[in-house]
Amino acid sequence: MTNILLITADDMDARTPGAFGGDRCATPRLDALASAGMSFRRSHVPIAVCQPSRSAIMTGCLPHRNGAEGFGPIADGIGVLTDHLHEQGFSAGILGKVDHIEPVERFKWDFARSMSQLGLGRSPEAYGRAAREFIAEAAEDARPWFLMANAHDPHRPFHGSEDERAKWSAQQRAAYPEPSRVFSAEEVEVPGFLPDLPEVRREVAQYLSSARRCDDVVGEVLDALEDSGQAQETIVVFLSDNGMAFPFAKANCYLRSTSTPLIVAWPGRIREGAVLEEPFVSTLDLFPTFCEIIGSQVPEGLDGCTLMPLLEESAGAREIAGRDRVHTVFHETSAKRRYEMRCVQTADWGYVWNSWSDGEEEYRAENMQGLSWGAMVGAAEGDDALEERTAFYLRRAPEELYDLRNDPDCLENLAGDPARADDLLAARTALRAELERSADPLLNVFATI
């Protein structure tokens, strides 16, 4: 029986790993994992905020269909992955983010270690020690296992930030180490969706240092697997639950909001170093994939489909590779502010419908904490282009349309361009089809556009 090791990062941008185009010094262990397995360049989470993103993974259903639209529980009667694991005799363990998939008791974890038991979710050594303990217990019981190892990096507060010092005491910070590599503002590349300002650079460096410590966690967990002697019988999956916690990323529906660096390694089953550039895949696909791997019946009515044909590059891969778009959503922030958004992205364009945008209501979310948003607002005084961009971020527009081939950073909204009227109509039609397929509760509202 194949074991499953699912490793997640908290708020890691899809382009942070070196294997996905990021700084090669940031993620050596993730880059090695990518070299040993398959990387997906067009992989997305269905919603770009922690708890509902993870709930979607564990149910295979969009948030409005599993009940966990925000920081609340999965609805009664919705099947979860651990149901299938336990039916097949698996031991199920979780490290970190335990209370970010609710209700916790619903999952009947055989082994659980909370954030506080893992150096505030930032101690690589603690993760490695817990992974070893869990794998050893499963081996002693002669059971196959599933382990969800959730790093809390690079979630805010970032390494070395004022927010980190304000949030945690020196004693608390002593529970976890510095990253194995700390970055300076001078050496980082600022993502194209952010302005290159000194304070933005400083915060990107703090973020990247935290991402390196996430990579350190990944390394310790993978070392625990290797030392157990079970690496050859284990499929390893890595992903981030959403984009980085900066403006125009996390808690939105932009390309860098929902893109995730999905890596799958499976010795003897997946071609090493494979890179899939074209097919759109969703983390909703992991639930049916895991069910197939463990020999459990895949439930009907899921919003994802098995990735096995792609992983094994079999004849059935053609159908999945034919996916020409991905559907994503947003409902509410961690502070429970509602900002209903729906999105369809293809290789050519991205379309976002903001049902909340009325010209008056202002957007507020956790991605506006820290240095970057304040620096953007301050620099906007006297900079017309930046003033327009910050004002747009606060109130948006009911419709956004982006040329992702030429503008992947989603800087120019083309929804009002008469020359793009046909593209806008095609995007509306595509989104309407997704809303109909998923029985979205806002379908009737969108139909009035």
Automatic annotation (TrEMBL):
The keyword Mitochondrion does not apply. SUPFAM superfamilies: Alkaline phosphatase-like. The keyword Hydrolase applies. It comes from the Bacteria. Residues 3-295 form the Sulfatase N-terminal domain. Keywords: Hydrolase. Coiled coil: none annotated. Belongs to the sulfatase family. This is Sulfatase.
